[in-house]
Amino acid sequence: xxxxxxxxxxxxxxxxxxxxxxxxxxxxxxxxxxxxxxxxxxxxxxxxxxxxxxxxxxxxxxxxxxxxxxxxxxxxxxxxxxxxxxxxxxxxxxxxxxxxxxxxxxxxxxxxxxxxxxxxxxxxxxxxxxxxxxxxxxxxxxxxxxxxxxxxxxxxxxxxxxxxxxxxxxxxxxxxxxxxxxxxxxxxxxxxxxxxxxxxxxxxxxxxxxxxxxxxxxxxxxxxxxxxxxxxxxxxxxxxxxxxxxxxxxxxxxxxxxxxxxxxxxxxxxxxxxxxxxxxxxxxxxxxxxxxxxxxxxxxxxxxxxxxxxxxxxxxxxxxxxxxxxxxxxxxxxxxx
Length: 337
Hints:
CATH class of the largest domain: Alpha Beta
Largest sheet: 7 strands, mixed
Oligomer: single chain
CATH topology of the largest domain: Rossmann fold
Radius of gyration: 20 Å
């Protein structure tokens, strides 16, 4: 399989490293290698039909700030459409305003008959149906396990291993930054601003934490889950969203008096499509601390299924991208390609 990596930040570098690490798995399981034949970031790109060395790509990015020496010069769409490769691994940053440039890259690949594996929430949260229909129309795969929950395998679990189940509802914690802040407020009695600063100093929260603390990140993920698992036709804008900026020490203390904790919960059922702070009983799975993500699926046959995992990180997100690459390789292998 020949792949191109779009975006070479933390996640792009992570999947490049993992591809290098897993060549023996590819060879043993599918009798082929996965070759990185191109990669680009916001300002440079590099290509080699014979294959690029993952370690050299990562080292060059660290040393120069760019994955390649050439400027994109606005020609990436044409490059995606015309270059000879099988799968685009799309890892550009989430843009919830207009989903660009990820949407253009993904759509160009799908319309060119190429599979797409992505970690990018923006295009899926805003234009899920358009992208899914493009994949179906062009008979290629669009896979996005890494867009929700990092290493937590909730989408593929629901759509593949649980496809015989009727899933009534879903609820969970979809943002580790908010979980860390709320947990620190409870454990140490910290005010919100101080807990946020601590998260920023530790690298858990961004300098501009709005996507996390205002519930934007969680709402994006909930929209993707609603479409992927419940076959809805919704966007990020359809999610009722309340963040955690207004949570006070008094609210945390009041919850503690009732033997409860405050958590930012996303929920999907026949009456609710919402992200909001909720009080959760201590000891309940959704009372989990730290930066972990958790999702509970309520099904008709298996009952309640709980999945926990790290929602972000270089290797964690790469593991989800790898699972989607392996699924495509397995499908091609079964079809004798």
